Structures
1.
Amino acid sequence: LEASGVSVSVLCPGATDTGFEKRAGLAKSKLFKGKNMSAATVAKIAYKGFMNNEMIIIPAFLVHSKEEFQEKLERVKGIVSHIHVDVMDGIFVPNTTWADPKVIDELLPIGMTYEAHCMVVDPLRVCSRWGNVRALSRFIFHTETIHHVHELLGCVRPLKKEVWLACNPETPIEKVQKTTRFFDGMLVMGVHPGLD
């Protein structure tokens, strides 16, 4: 789009007080518990950022313990509203990570969301374990592990989470082109995943 003069802006504020939760019958949902930003505050921050052409940075958390997660979280609290959590199973990639969805949900402040970069051989298992957490807004699954696209999407779409596709540097573009239209976004790896 660079040559077209079109710019793309993305805003991911997390839970926001708009009255939607009451209209949707979700007033008691964990998603809306706690202190959320007002729609006016979100709009003001977004407008200022977009007008200043500010870049949004999503820090990645590749951690091996709850304590390491907490330490990294303390460094970014109040600075970012969204983080990237690496989930590694030791099979698809050689390493493993600590990533307990329920604990992460409890540790994140209200208004902060995260995406789970699933470097795992069994995306459906991750979907069932991670689907019902408040702060998770996006799954990122590797094309190399998706054998049945519609089965995976059938698992994720009812959870109201975004679903992105990731691909390793050596993956042929033809393999990715067949399925990209079914996903909300794409993460193109510049390095092979799974290393510290």
Note: The longest helix spans residues 39-51.
2.
Amino acid sequence: YANDTAVVRTASSDMGPGTYTAMTQLAADTLGLPIERVHFELGDSDMPKAPVHGGSMTLASVGTAVVDACKTLMARLPADDPAEGHGARLRRIGLESLTATGHSEPGEEAKQFSSAGFGAVFAEVRVDPDFGTVRVPRIVGAYDVGRVINPKIAPKLPLDQYRVKVPDYLRRLEGPAGRVVAGVLAVDVEALRVRE
């Protein structure tokens, strides 16, 4: 907009991993605006289409499309004075606003490289032999996350996954009375180590 603000929209959802924050940061960075001058909207099917939210693909897909839209927008503005803000350039060409749509989809690299192998998690699981209660006293994870968009929340994301996944795996180990089901323990403890 000519008042040096931007609105970014997508039909994506946000289940709590910081989609609002990350997309706002990407747009602000690409447009050269302070973060408080960018407004991000999501979750309406009338907005540009987005893939299913999950599997660590929202940032890679929607984030790439946000950057693409911002770069397309900037390329449409006169660039005589790069220090001049985009609002001033819009006013100079007589516009109050300008719209651009970004696009992102897997390319040939999706056939050549895995996008799922980004970390390893190891858990110590203890089972009380008398009562069958299960405890997880220690979990250690190592991740290769690529570019960190928001360093404030990046360290907590694996912890959030542990809080969600460990109880899920432990429920699979327990029978109706909360005790370990015989014959299942070895399989599910291995799943806890390998699947994560």
Note: The radius of gyration is 23 Å.
